[in-house]
Amino acid sequence: MADIPVQAFTPVTTEHRHFRAVLIGISVFFMVILLFAPLATIFATALSDGWKAAAEGISSPDALSAIRLTLTVAAIAVPLNIIFGIAAAWAIAKFDFRGKAFLITLIDLPFSVSPVVAGLALVLLFGSHGAFGTWLIAHDLKIVFAFPGILLATLFITFPFVARELIPVMIEQGRAEEEAALTLGASGWRVFRSVTLPNIRWALLYGVLLANARAMGEFGAVAVISGKIRGETTTMPIMIEMLYNEYLSVAAFSLASLLAALALVTLALKSLLEWRFAGQLAATRRH
Amino acid sequence: MYRTVKTGTHVLAQGTFVRRHGDGRIEINLGDRHVIGLPVDADDGTGQGNVITRLFGTGYWRGGLFAVLATLGLGFSFPHDAAAQEELLNVSYDPTREFYREYNELFNDWWEAQGHAPVTLRQSHGGSGGQARAVIDGLEATVVTLALSADISAIAERTGKIPEDWQSRLPHNSSPYTSTIVFLVREGNPKGIKDWDDLVRDDVEVITPNPKTSGGARWNFMAGWAWALKEYGGDEEKARAYMAELYGNVPVLDTGARGATNTFTQRGLGDVLLAWENEAFLALAEQGEDNFDIVVPSVSMLAEPPVTLVDGNITSDAQREAAEAYLEHLYSPEAQALAVKNFYRAWDDSAASEEDIARFPDVERLSIDEFGGWAKVQPAFFGDGGIFDQIYGG
User: Fold this and answer.
1) Which chain A residues in 213-252 lie under 8 Å from chain B, judged by CB atoms?
2) Distance (Å, rounded) from C-alpha A198 to C-alpha A177?
């Protein structure tokens, strides 16, 4: 013990106290203005006529159907994106092939394309005057202005979220562990289950949460393709806009609060998991 | 005052009352001809509007008649036996939300009283042009109730789902209710806006939606155009210059009428909103009479928002019957009163309350026919490279 040299204590920051106060003040100011104030307004407006009015706003048949539709779309879109995201990230991170850069660009496409353009593209493709329109009508298949169209639009928009979270993590981890497992005689599936999946699970969870939040909140692409039929093809974000336009502010903001609350629950879930598995998380981050 | 008559199960007419015949039928004047038919009265309760009901009185008789016809194999679909509920999708434009919410209830009550199974009525609202676009792209509207005939004609032309002569299928150019364009200004009219010439002043900001997507915006444009032509003695160049100046005062073009109303009333932008009269009244009712005033200009348009059946999307005879009844019942005194209550100018106000009728100020309303009808106006003014394109940002 005695041979450890004694070091003088130095504070982490050397800036002047006032300077630090100003910097912190600026961050807090923007946090309050940009994040807290809007959120508080939504809840305050929703509750402006009391709990009962807010509950009625959420429990009208149209609102309930919007909630059901949004949750159903998310429940289908997110698992599909998990499968796609893992497959794409696996291919990109663990294998070399021609056109890899092109595939990465393709995955990023939904990030760079405006959602409205995405929605319109789907309408042009599957609408009655679109490329597949005649065939779809002949077979009595409804895509646009119906559930499949909304699902397609949501899938397109949430496409990159899981893959984009996984690719950097998987590239960073390299393929050494997988190769070791293979030389020890593990099957492909075993390698994935016992080596790859445990390594990526935190990135995967984060990707899933982001994809879910976007799937529930997407407005632009879905608005173009929904047809806005009340109680049928209106998702929560679209219903919120409709209620607001009908001067039903309390109902609109009640539904908005619910949507915000769903997002907050996802965030809370993520924090809880991070806290609960803090040790394992630190271990994975060692890479 | 207009009266409504039925001359068959599916032929409706509205005109001024001429005389009452001995058998209970009445004669009305349609302008170019007289029509005799059974009156559709507000006070005769449910059922009397339907000729069969009137002839046979009770449900027992009606059921018997249908049973006999069915046995004879005349192929009548018997509504009582319809296992699946008929569905109608009404694709409409922005400001009709409140009206159709109430009308759908009224219709279903009446329809059930006629001995039919209730129909599932679904609604879709948006900017009129955008809604027409959605129907063209495959939105399966059973009926369309849009802001102007050009939008319905666009559906007819591009899809063939509506016959060319659709506008003559129902009375009054298929427009069960009409409106006009008025100014909505802030309380006390601080900028002293009285007529169209005030809109081009430097200190006035005008809010109006985009005529490319909004039906109301096209009526707004034509109302301003009508005033300018009158003011400058028919000089089109001067009217054009006036419209260019007017749109130079527009800070933002929303896509639909309701969006523009919200921009003006809730976001607080602009000094004057060019609005449907019904939209302006609704804003007063919803946002407080103390916040805004309505100013009626010296000249405005007779805005006729038409309705029609989308024949190509009809899947069964029962659905067609319900859809036709849905549109025709819009002309019944009860529905007309509901339109008046929702701030539309209706034709037959026999069932409307005095108070509701008294709200509408007199205004000189020009018909779109004075400019050649929408078939001519639409491409010339709002088509690609049309007058609007030339004056706005051109």
Assistant:
1) 227-232, 242, 244-247
2) 12
- Identify the pLDDT of residue B83: 46
Q: Give the residue from chain A lying closest to B99, CA to CA.
A: A246
Task: For tokens 């849009």, name the residue.
Answer: B146
ipTM of the complex, rounded to two decimals: 0.70
Residues of chain A with confidence (pLDDT) below 70: 1-11, 279-287
CB A199 within 8 A of CB A287: yes
For the stretch A58-62, contacts whose Cβ atoms lie closer than 8 Å and that sit 24 or more positions apart, written own/partner, are A58/A251, A58/A254, A58/A255, A58/A258, A60/A251, A61/A231, A62/A230, A62/A231, A62/A234, A62/A239
What's the number of domains chain B is made of?
Answer: 2
What CATH number is attached to the domain comprising B32? 3.40.190.10
- Per the listing, tokens 């646009």 go with A144
| CATH number of A269's domain | 1.10.3720.10
Torsional sign, CA A168, A174, A177, A178: positive
* Cβ-Cβ contacts under 8 Å for A135 (sequence gap 6 or more): none
B89: helix, coil or strand? strand
Q: Are A119 and A218 in contact (CB under 8 A)?
A: no
B337 CB-contact burial (10 Å; exposed 0-12 / middle 13-18 / buried 19+): buried
Does residue A188 sit in helix, strand or coil?
A: helix
A231 → chain B, closest CA residue? B122
Q: What is the pLDDT of residues A38-68, one digit of tens each?
A: 999 999 989 988 888 889 888 888 899 999 9
| B349/A contact by beta carbon, under 8 A | no
B137, B259, B282 member nearest A123 (Cβ):
B137
Domain that residue B334 falls in: 2-177+304-357
User: What's the DSSP call for residue A113?
Assistant: S
Q: Three-state SS for B102? A: helix
Q: Averaged over B224-232, what is the pLDDT?
A: 93
